[in-house]
Amino acid sequence: MDAMPARLDSPLPVDIAVPPLHEQEFALFQTLIHREVGIYLSEAKQSLLVARLSRRLRELGLHSFRTYYDLVTSEGGEAERARMFDCISTNESSFFREPHHFEFIEREVIPRWIGLAAEGKRDRCVRAWSAGCANGEEPYTLAMVLLSRLLPSAGWHIRILATDLSNRALARARQGLWPLAKASDIPERYLKAFMLRGVRSQEGKMKAGPEIRSVVEFAPLNLNRDSYPLREKFDLIFCRNVLIYFHTTQRARKTSQIVGDLAPDGYLFLGHAETLHHTGAAGLGTVTPTVYSWLHGRPESGGKSGRKTS
Asked: Is residue 246 part of a domain?
């Protein structure tokens, strides 16, 4: 009979030895994680799983990975299961990561939108989605770039939805607070316009200013779900370094699902190691490396209507 989870109100000392992860146990976690959140852990990732979960086993005073598996799959284990997904998620990011994406928006996209708006051919509402936003650097970078040119005083309305699987990462992103060393990733003109330097108790830290915080909304979202509760189409979708975690057989389905929320004249941004080749994302073409748009307008899907105006 499988061991029952240890009592959580009397954990063992945190310096207990980490138990080995047996192949059968790894297979159980591999299946659970793949089914629930779409992340596929190959056999080569077994040591990674041990590294990510060992601290949690110590904190709970558990003697085996099987005991922890029983805990996260038990009735009432939803909170710990979410904690486990937090542990295995990679939430590293940086401001202006892959800068050619933001240069493209500044150089090509924003001037085009301004021209179309002046001609009455588009509204002044811009919707963007940062899928897999980690600690918030990506959506706040996007907010800085858009707000620097698309001014609210000129009637522009920016709305950025930032989602992630990890509740821990979302909590840090909402806080909008980073070590001051992160400032080196931000061009000076953006740094002065949109970031605040910490003083007294916040010495050595940097905080997102109110202007960019006001246009970013953070929400938990599991990209492995069959549908997403999104209300509108997006002019910009950033889904960078996310699809690489899905198994090849799932990648095409996920890509099709994500681009289904792209506006007819929208742009999709992928990570430098990702591509739409072999994903079945028909109708999308390369605009510049790792940036895609509809070649002949967005095909009718019978789903949600196009981007709403405000």
From this structure: yes
